[in-house]
Design a protein that fits this description.
The protein is of the alpha+beta class. It has one domain. 40% of the residues lie in helices and 26% in strands. Strands 3-2-1-4-5 form a five-stranded antiparallel sheet.
Length: 97
């Protein structure tokens, strides 16, 4: 039997952020995590906590990074948008396939 690939990993999200000029946030009761092209914030979360948070999160907030006015006019996302886990999985798989 084949195991379905989980696209929501720190590495894949960093690539997605870099390619789309975004930061992506997710929250749990105990922690909040923001992922940017340069890494995750706060940086004091352990690797296991980051993986656990990404695995359990059902909704992700995407925010556009500040860019030039010409690019802002062409942006397909508002300044902030929320995606379900499934929607983000689809976007990541399209980017990386």
């Amino acid at each position: 039997m084949s195991k379905q690939l989980d696209w929501i990993t720190l590495d894949y999200l960093e690539i997605y952020c870099r390619n789309n000029h975004l930061v992506i946030g997710c929250r749990s009761l105990e922690n909040e995590l923001w992922i940017s092209p340069t890494g995750s914030h706060p940086t004091d979360l352990t690797s296991d906590k980051v993986k656990d948070l990404l695995r359990k999160c059902t909704s992700f907030e995407l925010r556009t990074l500040l860019r030039g006015q010409e690019e802002d006019a062409e942006s397909s996302l508002p300044d902030s948008a929320f995606l379900s886990r499934e929607e983000l999985q689809v976007r990541l798989s399209r980017l990386l396939n």
